[in-house]
Design brief:
This protein is mainly alpha-helical and about 280 residues long. It contains 14 helices and two strands; from the N terminus they run αββααααααααααααα. The protein has helices spanning about 1-20, 45-55, 60-70, 75-90, 95-105, 110-125, 130-140, 145-155, 160-175, 180-190, 200-210, 225-240, 245-255, 265-275, and strands spanning about 25-30, 35-40.
């Protein structure tokens, strides 16, 4: 058994080492336009997670911690390998499918993300993260009705106010894109996100409710690439559901120019720009 345990950890470590060049600046995603998006440098979190995993190689919790640490510096392909190795230890662990599905989303492998998250939902039908990310991949594939179903399920079990705002935002967008504007408005009117949140989704919800205008969504404080991508997509989609494709396109392009390539807003902006060609 000890030899098998050492072998499992060795596979995880070897796969990570092989995937990451010096400095951790591996190419994680290459866009259709040929733009390469790279990982960031590890500041110590990965090394600490690797050390913890070495002490307990069959711990699913520590395998997930390593994958999350890798994701924290945008080493998504390395994280996918980590979660995949975890599934050799625990092939029916829903959280491993949740995390690997999320990371497949990050590198735009939508079919694999859909497979993982669907399987995860069958293993654990109460997992917020599975339903939320399943909603994202369904939305990316243009299956807005199924996305709405997933986000409605996520909305009922958020871990905090910020995630509740996110599920509510994506539910409104999914219903709107599915041609169910009255349901989308009724959902907002019920104010399911009554607990205050201060993230980008809360700001976008203010736009949907008419509390601010589209030019007020981005503020001087919104300088991070993820925030810019997220907010810009929300404004673009708001214009799109109103039939203004010219303004929608401009905001989607702004989202992509942000450089915040892991953001779901960036990912969806790429998808929308392809649809608008």
């Amino acid at each position: 058994m000890a030899g098998k345990v050492s072998s499992i950890y060795g596979l995880v470590a070897a796969a990570v080492a092989a995937a990451a060049p010096a400095g951790g600046q591996s190419v994680e995603y290459r866009s259709a336009a040929g733009v390469e998006y790279r990982a960031q440098r590890d500041t110590g979190a990965i090394a600490r997670a690797e050390s913890a995993l070495a002490a307990d190689p069959r711990s699913v919790e520590r395998i997930i911690q390593l994958g999350v640490a890798q994701s924290g510096v945008r080493q998504y392909r390395e994280a996918i390998q980590t979660f995949t190795r975890g599934l050799t230890v625990a092939p029916n662990d829903a959280m491993l499918y949740r995390w690997r599905g999320h990371r497949y989303l990050s590198v735009r492998e939508f079919d694999r993300a859909l497979d993982d998250l669907t399987r995860g939902s069958r293993l654990d039908s109460t997992n917020y993260g599975i339903w939320y990310h399943l909603g994202i991949v369904r939305y990316a594939r243009g299956d807005f009705a199924a996305a709405a179903d997933a986000f409605a399920r996520a909305q009922r079990r958020p871990p905090d106010a910020a995630e509740l705002a996110g599920a509510t935002d994506w539910l409104w967008m999914s219903l709107s894109r599915a041609g169910r504007a009255a349901e989308a408005q009724a959902m907002l009117d019920r104010r399911p996100d009554s607990v205050a949140a201060t993230n980008a989704y809360a700001q976008r919800l203010r736009l949907y409710r008419g509390q601010i205008g589209p030019d007020d969504v981005l503020t001087a404080a919104d300088t991070g690439d993820i925030a810019l991508a997220t907010l810009s997509y929300g404004v673009g989609n708001w214009y799109l559901v109103r039939g203004d494709t010219a303004r929608a396109r401009a905001w989607f392009e702004r989202s992509v120019r942000s450089g915040g390539w892991p953001a779901f807003g960036f990912i969806m902006s790429e998808v929308e720009l392809r649809r608008l060609r």
